[in-house]
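ok trying this again, last paste got cut off
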Amino acid sequence: MHLLTTAATLLAAIYVQAVMFTNNGYNGITIGRPFTLTWSGSGSPVSINVLKPRGSSDLLEKLVTLTTTATGTSYTWTPSANIPPGTYALSICQGTASNYSPRFQLSAA
């Protein structure tokens, strides 16, 4: 019984620490205007990537890496003009854990 309780506690700790975006919405993301991404998770720095849908609506391709060294629980991204307006998503990775934002529209300035 003690082993089962210990295993359940460890699994719960791993689940709670999984990295994930915590933004309430992704409306109004505009080229040239800062947008703060927030997440939960602890431990090593996170990587954040911009993803572009390709082909089927379920396929996402990495377009650009925003950071590989973000620490804490937030990162402010100012979309540059080298990413054209369109539909995108974001990925966040910490160690072997990854998670994704909902898709959003990046608008022209």
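PB: full thing came through this time. Strands lie at 20-21, 35-40, 46-53, 60-70, 74-77, 86-94, 97-100, 104-106.
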